[in-house]
Design a protein that fits this description.
- This protein is α/β, with parallel strands linked by helices.
- The protein has 2 domains: 43 residues, no CATH class; 135 residues, 3-Layer(aba) Sandwich (Glutaredoxin), CATH 3.40.30.
- The chain contains 6 helices and 9 strands.
- The strands form 3 sheets. It has a 5-stranded mixed β-sheet with strand order 5-4-3-8-9, covered by helices on one side. Strands 1-2 form a two-stranded antiparallel sheet. Strands 6-7 form a two-stranded antiparallel ribbon.
- Strand 6 and strand 7 form a beta hairpin.
- The longest helix is centred in the first third of the chain and has 30 residues.
- It is elongated and about 90 Å long.
Length: 197
């Protein structure tokens, strides 16, 4: 840019023409930079009106751990709040009280929370359930840590590798919402939404 300005100063032109040329170069240059930044920003953003899984059938699963066998199919006709979590995950612990309260408040309306833990260690999982007195159906689907997150069979079917993530599945088995990160499940908007499904 400075070499261009140097060449402009050497032009045999009136000061007025030089000002116009410099203005034109600056406007073009900064417009280009702004357009480039806007393009990069927009291309990095989410495209479309909703995530891929929304308004599609929820992937079926069956998980058996030492305590129980849980399958999505056993909750047909209910609104399922499918929560992927781990005992070592601080946001999972943060949202747990509201998740348990919501389960208590809405179970009579056909809403059921199903927790799928990706804890690799069964002892950590069992201790967490006991220490926090978890009141909803939960099962352990052990995961393995890698560069992108934790890989576990059921959470991978849903495209979940970082926790917590929650999927709202309606009474017909369709995924209606995906919630990423810690959520306060006792918010009036969430309670009302779940009650209407």
């Amino acid at each position: 840019m400075s070499s261009v300005l140097g060449k402009i100063r050497n032009l045999e032109a009136t000061p007025e023409i030089r000002v116009r040329v410099v203005y034109y170069i600056y406007v073009r240059f900064y417009s280009f930079v702004l357009l480039l930044l806007l393009t990069i920003t927009v291309s990095a953003c989410y495209h479309g009106s909703k995530p891929r899984a929304i308004d599609r059938p929820a992937p079926d699963f069956k998980v058996q751990d030492s305590d129980r066998t849980v399958s999505l199919d056993q909750f047909k006709g209910k609104v399922v709040v499918l929560n992927f979590w781990a005992s070592w995950c601080p946001p999972c612990v943060e949202e747990l009280p509201s998740l348990m309260q919501m389960q208590t408040d809405l179970q009579n309306k056909g809403v059921v929370v199903v927790g799928v833990s990706v804890d690799a260690d069964a002892g950590d999982y069992e201790k967490f359930l006991k220490d926090h007195n978890v009141n909803f159906v939960t099962v352990r689907d052990p995961g393995q840590q890698n560069k992108t997150g934790v890989i576990a069979e059921v959470s991978s079917k849903y495209g979940t590798y970082r926790f917590p993530e929650t999927y709202i599945i309606d009474r017909d088995g369709m995924v209606r919402r995906k919630l990423i990160g810690a959520v306060n499940f006792t918010q009036p908007e969430i309670m009302e939404y779940l009650s209407r499904l």
